[in-house]
Specification:
The structure is a single chain. By secondary structure, this protein is of the alpha/beta class. The protein has a single domain, classed as Arginase, Chain A, CATH 3.40.800. Helix content is about 40%, strand content about 15%. The protein is built from 12 helices and 9 strands. Strands 1-3-2-4-9-8-5-6-7 form a 9-stranded mixed β-sheet, with helices on both faces. Helix 6 packs parallel to helix 7 and helix 10 packs parallel to helix 11. The two termini are about 20 Å apart. The relative contact order is 0.14. The model has no long low-confidence stretch (mean pLDDT about 95). Belongs to the arginase family. This is Arginase family protein. Its cofactor is Mn(2+). Keywords: Hydrolase, Manganese, Metal-binding.
Length: about 375
């Protein structure tokens, strides 16, 4: 067991909470939380104690480790992605009971906060008192700050394991990918980010905020070995052409219309050719559910038409995984209580089913 584990275990017990508990509520979705806890722990009482005990199993657990970040403070269109971690976990456990993954729990989210750098000292002290009963606690208080801090220690203690983050809005991928990339770079590993999305997320800032769902990609570029190691798939909703984003930021994009016009096999061949030419060792997959067509995934904050179909996304992922190890990933922007399609509960169920299939595949790959 790594010598770093005892300190990390203590940090996890302070900065995380049991799976599904990342949204602080009294009665909302109470039954779904109890259902999740029953599946994970065999009961729905004394969950905090059972979860603390379960953390002791992390060192010898699966290489695939789930962490929920139930925050949508970095969003800004339709909210509700904070419920993604709870709902997606329940779907995964119901539909994919044989998954080999360890659930580490949820980041403790104060829903009004985004990153500690936006807070003054008095607010941080008050939030530390609320989260840790200690205004002088050394721990961060905002979801992006907490996630990055926890994962830097996680990757130092367990470099052979991979995190699968469940969000939450896409700002969450900023700390997830930043910690991942920095850990890989420290080991001399050349990692690429495969980013599925309808949107580029390459703003420098949005309404004065530099870290949000529309800008997170811009702020991880320095952590890549080269900017074109950010490869974006499914883009279609943009006020600027593909050439603007590629020329300005040096990233590589494969827009959704290219899949329609050239076929998914051609897009796969182009991605694989680029990865081979860049001597990439490992992949991280960040998946915004709105990469999929809104007929497939409409329970999300910004559903878009003319997107990827589920089988196309899966074919791309399977083709990449056949050549490169996928060692980290995330599923973002599932908002189960939203309904932009007018189809009621079936909208959420269809979106969750699509997200669960992709998530289960990624978890199985990380577990390898």
């Amino acid at each position: 067991m790594t010598a770093l584990w005892p300190a990390l275990q203590q940090k996890l017990q302070h900065c995380l909470c049991p799976p599904g508990n990342g949204v602080f509520t009294v009665n909302t979705a109470k039954e779904r939380k109890e259902q999740l806890h029953q599946k994970l722990f065999g009961q729905s009482e004394n969950i905090e104690s059972l979860w603390h005990t379960s953390l002791a199993e992390l060192p010898k657990s699966s290489k695939a480790v789930i962490m929920g970040i139930a925050s949508d403070c970095g969003g800004g269109i339709l909210r509700g992605a904070n419920w993604g971690p709870l709902f997606l976990r329940n779907t995964l456990l119901s539909e994919y009971p044989q998954l080999s993954a360890f659930d580490m729990g949820d980041i403790r989210v104060i829903p009004h906060l985004l990153h500690d750098k936006y807070l003054n000292e008095a607010t941080i002290a008050n939030c530390r008192k609320a989260l840790y009963q200690d205004e002088n606690s050394p721990y961060a208080v905002s979801p992006l700050s907490l996630t990055e801090d926890v994962l830097h220690d996680f990757y130092q203690a367990f470099p052979e394991k991979g995190i699968f983050g469940i969000g939450g809005d896409h700002s969450i991928s900023y700390p997830l990918t930043k910690a991942y990339l920095q850990a890989k770079k420290a080991k001399g590993i050349r990692a690429a980010i495969i980013h599925f999305d309808a949107h580029t997320d390459l703003l420098v800032e949005r309404l004065g905020i530099d870290l949000c769902f529309g800008s997170w990609c811009t702020h991880i570029l320095d952590d890549l070995h080269a900017n074109n190691h950010l490869i974006q798939v499914g883009i279609r909703s943009s006020g600027r052409p593909k050439s603007h984003w590629e020329d300005t930021f040096g990233v590589k994009q494969h827009w959704a219309h290219e899949v329609r016009e050239s076929g998914v096999d051609k897009v796969i061949a182009n991605i694989l050719a680029q990865l081979e030419g860049e001597n990439i060792d490992e992949l991280y997959v960040s998946f915004d559910i709105d990469a999929l067509d809104d007929s497939v995934a409409s329970a999300t904050g910004t559903p878009e038409p003319d997107g990827l179909y589920q089988e196309e996304a899966m074919k791309i992922l399977k083709s990449l995984a056949a050549v490169y190890p996928i060692t980290g990933g995330d599923m973002m922007e599932i908002a189960p209580f939203t309904d932009s399609s007018g189809s009621g509960a079936s909208s959420a169920e269809k979106t969750l089913a699509a997200g669960a299939e992709i998530s289960a595949f990624l978890l199985n790959e990380i577990a390898k």
